[in-house]
Design brief:
AAA family ATPase; binds magnesium ion; P-loop_NTPase; ATPase_dyneun-rel_AAA; five-stranded parallel sheet; 11 strands; two-stranded antiparallel ribbon; alpha/beta; AAA+_ATPase; binds adenosine-5'-triphosphate; Rossmann fold
Length: 376
């Protein structure tokens, strides 16, 4: 009896131990399975998880493990799908973004072949008129670039000089620009002072005569001889033009005198105009976009909004024949202001709409507090 009792007790004890062991093992397995499930959700690796779970639960009959394994597999598959879908989404997004950035920042190579000269390659961001200007200059003609304010005329002259390897000189003309700025002068000690024009004329180089239609007619007619005959009477001497002497002049008008927008312009003499090959330089909106975005690398969304607005205002003003100017300079300077921390509203007021009269604002749909009409 005592023996039996002892045996029963022993058996009972073994059962207790076995039960405890079984419970411990089940707990450990549950933990492993849960960990595997977490890994699955985290990593989205269905195959690895399923394998791991199967390995851990292989010997455990019917019970929860099968359900658990199925749940883990379902979770793993779902997370795998989510990861793959987001990967695809991300790839499509990344590709679109990369293409956009490339289009905005890639520098097209302009290659220009003119006559027998070796081709010239140019990779700076440039106005679409640059190849035409290079052809004109390669043909040894002087160029007059005509276009509204801020379209990039002066920059074109600078870029043409660099593309052709010519030294660049510049002079901005105004109604009071004296002859001495072009032809030089003797000071009170009898020393002759040369000018950029003189250096370009004598030694070769590209001379930018900015704002030609603001220059004094008397000064311009003095220039005519230098531009066509190739000889020029400077204050100290008669000089023959260097074969690489070129003039690029810029103007906001075709030399027809003042208009409603460019009120201070002179009418250009036919003899002066005749010395230039005339190229139109309209707004190049692609260049405007490239430059605007380049100046606001961390404010691209706001910069795009300003750009869109400026271009919309420009086309509306043109359509309604309003004498107001929304130049690419407004977009570019706005981008700089945004990058420096100004708000969109400040930039619109300070740089885009400043100086536009109430009547013109109203015609443009830009009354204060009006949020209709133009895109933001
Ligand atoms: N190709 C370019 N690369 C970099 N910046 C440019 C380029 N073209 C124009 N810009 C910038 O755009 C602005 C206007 O250009 P630019 O002064 O050449 O215009 P413009 O036609 O001569 O204007 P205006 O008629 O008022 O004299 C400037 O800030 C200039 O630096
Ligand atoms: Mg200029």
């Amino acid at each position: 009896m005592r023996e039996k009792t002892r045996a029963t007790v022993r058996e009972l004890a073994r059962e207790v131990v076995a039960a405890e062991l079984a419970e411990g093992a089940a707990g450990a397995m549950r933990q492993v399975a849960e960990e595997a499930a977490r890994d699955a959700v985290r990593g989205g690796n269905e195959r690895l998880v399923a394998q791991q779970v199967r390995r851990q639960l292989a010997d455990d009959g019917e019970f929860r493990p099968r359900l658990l394994a199925e749940a883990v597999e379902t979770a793993a598959r779902a997370s795998q799908r989510a990861v793959e879908a987001s990967k695809l989404d991300f790839m499509a997004f990344a590709r679109a973004r990369a293409e956009q950035v490339f289009a905005e920042t890639a520098r097209p190579v302009v290659e220009i072949h003119a006559g027998q000269r070796p081709p010239v390659s140019f990779t700076e961001v440039s106005h679409r008129v640059l190849p035409d200007l290079l052809v004109v200059l390669a043909a040894r003609c002087h160029a007059l670039l005509v276009g509204p304010a801020g379209t990039g005329k002066s920059t074109l002259a600078q870029q043409a000089a660099s593309a052709l390897g010519l030294e660049f000189h510049a002079l901005s003309l105004g109604p009071t620009t004296p002859m001495s700025k072009i032809f030089g002068y003797y000071d009170a000690h009898g020393t002759y002072h040369a000018t950029p024009f003189r250096r370009a004329f004598e030694h070769g180089g590209l001379m930018l005569l900015d704002e030609l239609d603001s220059g004094h007619p008397g000064l311009l007619s003095e220039l005519n001889q230098a531009l066509s005959l190739g000889v020029c009477a400077f204050a100290d001497d008669m000089v023959t033009a260097h074969p690489d002497f070129r003039v690029v002049a810029t103007a906001n008008t075709y030399g027809t005198g003042p208009d409603r927008q460019y009120t201070g312009r002179q009418a250009l003499d036919a003899a002066t105009l005749d010395r230039f090959t005339l190229l139109d330089v309209p707004v190049d909106e692609r260049l405007e976009e490239q430059l605007t975005l380049a100046h606001a690398p961390t404010e691209a969304v706001a910069a795009r909004a300003v750009l869109k607005k400026v271009q919309w205002l420009r086309s509306t003003a043109e359509r309604k024949r309003l004498p107001v100017m929304f130049s690419p300079r407004a977009s570019i300077e706005s981008a700089k202001l945004l990058e420096a921390g100004a708000s969109l509203e400040q930039v619109m007021e300070w740089r885009v709409l400043r100086g536009v009269s109430a009547a013109h604002r109203s015609a443009l749909g830009e009354d204060e507090g009006n949020n209709d009409g133009p895109p933001a």
